[in-house]
Design a protein that fits this description.
about 300 residues; alpha/beta; six-stranded mixed β-sheet; two-stranded antiparallel sheet; 12 helices; globular
Length: about 300
């Protein structure tokens, strides 16, 4: 998809010269597609206080969020990018859930393993422009970082909020009966874990309601998610990389809701970006009909 086509699909009224100047000013080592989307967003979405970016693992959420925040800064709006990942429950809290509810809840990532109340209060504070400390999660330690290391921000005008399950809604109970992969079949045969995760989705509705504009990065399939997530692993120090078996098991925790989002979210997103297997934007759509996630 050409950059002209991308701009025409997402925001045809954006001034072409301003768009091109802003795009060229963004880091050249970033994918050109994401630089273009960030420039379009900075020029078209400036009045939106909270912009949410959803997409499967490895889809480019963090990269796009950082570029969009940078582009908005250049366009004159002080902006912060933050991730749902930084609101994971502490390791101790997840261990308690694993011991009292289901062992699979020890692994971070799915709804029910975040502090949704902390996320909501933080995003609300940021969106109001109030002085705010933003939590940070240390994935190397698999635990929340000490509060002294949290990011302190003030006078923010925009928030770019990203996360793989942003906007997710509960599945019908009938869909929980059949496992979607070997992890669910062997380690959750009675559907206790996936039912707990599904119930937790309802508790996130008040957090999703803070988002003014939704961008969905539509992955081609789970095989692409795996390849892209492996690329991310390979950029980590060798001691921190997951093995092939560990990565497969890790991603299996997210497969059900990744596929559920893929089936449901495109029609609800304000901007729907379809990615091809080479990680390029193959098509884009801006919806004037898009509404908030169910339950908002």
């Amino acid at each position: 998809m050409t950059l002209i086509d991308l701009r025409a699909c997402l925001a045809p009224d954006v001034n072409a010269r301003r768009f091109e100047a802003l795009r060229r000013g963004l880091p050249r080592d970033a994918p050109d597609d994401w630089r273009a989307v960030a420039a379009i967003g900075a020029l078209a979405l400036g009045s939106r206080r909270v912009i949410g970016i959803c997409g499967g693992q490895g889809s480019g959420k963090s990269t796009l969020a950082a570029l969009l925040a940078r582009a908005m800064e250049v366009a004159g709006r002080k902006t912060v990018a933050c991730s749902l990942d930084d609101f994971y429950l502490t390791r101790a809290d997840r261990t308690r859930l694993a011991n009292t509810v289901h062992p699979l809840l020890a692994t971070r990532g799915v709804p029910g393993t975040h502090d949704a109340d902390l996320a909501r209060s933080t995003i609300e504070s940021l969106a109001a422009g109030a002085p705010t400390r933003v939590p940070r999660f240390d994935k190397g330690r698999d635990d929340r970082a000490p509060e002294a290391s949290w990011m302190a921000v003030r006078d923010i005008r925009n928030v770019v909020f990203e996360g793989w399950c942003l906007g997710v809604t509960p599945q019908p109970a009938t869909l929980l009966r059949s496992p979607v992969n070997e992890l669910e079949a062997s380690e959750d045969p009675e559907a206790e874990w996936r039912t707990h995760v599904n119930d937790a989705c309802r508790r996130y509705a008040r957090l999703w309601a803070l988002v003014d504009w939704w961008i969905y990065l539509d992955v081609p399939d789970m095989d692409s998610v795996r390849r892209w997530r492996r690329d991310q692993e390979n950029r980590l120090p060798a001691a921190r990389r997951m093995s092939e078996m560990e990565l497969d098991r890790f991603l299996a925790h997210y497969e059900r809701l990744t596929l559920w989002l893929k089936s449901r979210f495109p029609d609800r997103a304000d901007w729907h970006l379809v990615l091809d297997r080479q990680h390029r934007v193959s098509s884009a759509r801006a919806s004037t009909q898009a509404g908030p996630p169910d339950g908002r």
